[in-house]
Design goal:
Structural class: mainly alpha
Strand content: under 5%
Oligomer: single chain
Shape: globular
Number of strands: 2
Number of helices: 17
Largest sheet: 2 strands, antiparallel
Radius of gyration: 22 Å
Distance between the termini: 40 Å
């Protein structure tokens, strides 16, 4: 549960005390219950394996098996390297400011204030922009979760003769989602998280059983790339599935020995190799099983008339449904901390209004455009291109300004390259996803 508290900004700034040149921020973190190496690895795998992995078969079908293998590995290693840069930049800022920890937005603010003079005027704007993207990312996840739950529930209900539109299924979700969104104590949501973790494991076992139950046939057409216009969609979906930046930063903060988290053979790199391997297996076997008929979530391809398949769909629907309030809590707390500084009266009314609003907004978007695949690619391209690429590159360039860029200013060149790649992924991914959303809306 500490992951969601961290992502919500409850840990913003931890002050240190020493003034020595050898100041180590890790020694000044006051973590009540630090996690061991094995516990952190388990949390990393749980935090990065969710609805995104079920969309990987759709991503693979867009570009073919060979391109998808290269693409997932390339995107995974690149995004992992960028997050490593982010953690290193935050560590350097903590040393300079003699504090145990700085939150992501605060780190961006201080980095840009120490960066090139031509950028310092935008430091405060970037501080709020990082917070905005974090909130947008969490609301995007909530929107995707609404569509995911409704899609899977609809298939099961349709089989038993209770045929209703997808939007009607979404309407049935608003009341229970709102009730869970009104829960104030995060500890009360712990049972939901525990139940979600257990049932998700059983769901993955059932899904993988269906993917490997028959002989695998590799057609030559499945190896080839379908078209270059599908690459941005593939990148957006892969980014959404792979990178949970908030979870990663939370785990690094809460680890008993944070130095074991980073490095070439650190926990983060090892964990990402495992995650990429799982995503490759799920994506490739799903595509080999269902071919071009693969849907936005592999659960939607499972047979509707078999009990095990129905169980898998319901398991994932329940799991994602129970995770919704935890994701929503993150966006709520980021905004609530800022609203409390503005409003001094009637806080209880503003509190409840904000909680309800943050449930209604993603639910309304889901009802307006209930498209699972394009939404996954859109929010992956929009938010994670910024959080996992552009912002880390920009922060790193400012942290080492002006004289510590290294030989031939390689750090600056590297950071410029990262920002350019991130912006390219952002623009191309959003463009193709919006086109697909528009096209699918016209078909309706």
């Amino acid at each position: 549960m500490f992951v969601y508290e961290f992502m919500a900004g409850l840990v913003d700034h931890i002050k240190g005390g020493e003034e020595a040149e050898s100041y180590d921020p890790h020694e000044h973190r006051k973590v009540e219950k630090p996690t061991s190496y094995s516990d952190t690895m388990i949390h990393l795998l749980k935090g990065s394996v969710g609805a995104g992995v079920l969309a990987m078969s759709d991503a693979v079908s867009r570009v073919g098996i060979i391109t998808s293998i290269c693409g997932i590995l390339l995107i995974g290693f690149f995004a992992t390297y960028c997050v490593q840069l982010l953690i290193a930049a935050q560590y350097e800022l903590c040393k300079r400011w003699r504090c145990g920890y700085l939150a992501y937005p605060k780190s961006m603010l201080l980095a840009v204030q120490d960066g090139p003079p031509c950028m310092r005027w935008v430091a405060r704007t970037l501080y709020y922009f990082v917070d905005t993207v974090l909130v947008l990312w969490q609301l995007g996840i909530c929107c995707i979760y609404c569509v995911f739950v409704a899609e899977n529930m609809k298939q099961v209900f349709d089989f038993y003769g209770q045929e209703m539109s997808l939007r009607l299924h979404l309407c049935f979700l608003i009341v229970p989602l709102t009730i869970m969104g009104l829960v104030k104590d995060l500890k009360l949501l712990t049972p939901f998280s525990s139940i979600s973790n257990v049932v998700t494991l059983f769901g993955f076992i059932l899904v993988f059983f269906y993917l490997i139950e028959n002989d695998v046939i590799v057609d030559e057409d499945k190896l080839k790339i379908k078209g270059f216009k599908e690459i941005p969609f593939f990148i957006g979906t892969t980014l959404f599935a792979l990178e949970a930046v908030g979870v990663v930063l939370a785990l690094e903060y809460n680890m008993e020995n944070p130095k074991q988290f980073v490095g070439l053979f650190g926990l983060f790199n090892i964990g990402m190799v495992i995650i990429m391997s799982l995503y490759l297996l799920m994506g490739i076997f799903g595509y080999l099983k269902y071919g071009d008929d693969v849907k936005a979530s592999i659960t939607l391809n499972l047979p509707q008339d078999q009990k095990k398949a129905q169980a898998a769909k319901l398991i994932f629907a329940v799991s994602i449904f129970l995770t919704f309030p935890l994701q929503n809590f993150v966006a709520y707390n980021i905004l609530w901390r800022k609203l409390k500084k503005i409003f001094k009266k009637h806080l209880w009314g503003i509190d409840y209004f904000l909680r309800i609003l943050l449930v209604v907004i993603p639910w309304s978007v889901a009802v307006a455009v209930p498209k699972l695949g394009p939404f996954i690619a859109l929010f992956g391209a929009l938010c994670l291109s910024l959080l996992a690429m552009v912002f880390p590159g920009l922060m790193d360039a400012c942290v080492w300004y002006p004289t510590t860029y290294g030989l031939c200013r390689y750090r600056l060149l590297r950071d410029i390259f990262i920002v350019i790649v991130g912006v390219a992924c952002l623009l191309s991914g959003c463009y193709t996803s919006l086109l697909e959303i528009a096209a699918s809306s016209e078909e309706d």
